[in-house]
Amino acid sequence: MRTIENTLSRRLSPAPDGSSSNDILLLGIGNFLMGDEGVGVQFIHRLAEQDIQFPNTDIMDGGVGGFTLMGHFDAYDKVIFVDATMDGKPPGTISLIKPRFSSDFPKGLTAHDFGLKDMVESMFLLGRVPELYLITISIAEIKPMCVELSPAVAESMQELEQQVTQLIGQLTAAEDSQ
Predict the structure, then answer these.
(1) DSSP per-residue string spanning 96-120
(2) pTM for this model (two decimals)
(3) Could you tell me which of 128, 172, 174 has the C-alpha nearest to residue 22?
(4) What are the beta bridge partners of residue 63?
(5) Structural domains counted in the chain
(6) What CATH number does residue 88 fall under?
(7) Per the domain annotation, does 8 fall within a domain?
(8) pLDDT (tens digit, 9 = 90+) per residue, 127-177?
(9) Owning domain of residue 165
(10) Fewer CB within 10 A of the terminal residue: the chain, N end or C end?
């Protein structure tokens, strides 16, 4: 685990003034100890373990989200959240939402949704809101004290990686054409 933390620290290394040379932050949200609810952070750890990198993008394990993450957003023009949702869709279903307000977040975000939604509202109040993208992975249940993903959610990881790669490709291509 310490190796993954070191890798993630190297991959997210803003300058001393808080700026970043990258414009995109890929942020996994979730509780690693709650089974499928931790799919966002599990995804970030998978990227770090396999040394998968995306152009112009930093990656970060955001844990359960909340106000402590707000300081990281100032350095980025775009933030992509990866999070679990209990939306009634089959487990492993991947959806992309471009929320503009906290009310645009799905009602089925898991246990930490209050903090994430409040954080987005606070960013609007402070006047510094990057472009936000939310990639959700549907889950059926939260399993306390479990670090394994269910088979359906684990099988969605490859598709999740492909969708994230595609989104980042679109974002960087749009930026390059400006």
Answers:
(1) EE--SSGGGS-TTB-TTHHHHHHHH
(2) 0.87
(3) 172
(4) none
(5) 1
(6) 3.40.50.1450
(7) no
(8) 878 999 999 999 999 999 999 999 999 999 999 999 999 999 999 998 777
(9) 22-176
(10) C
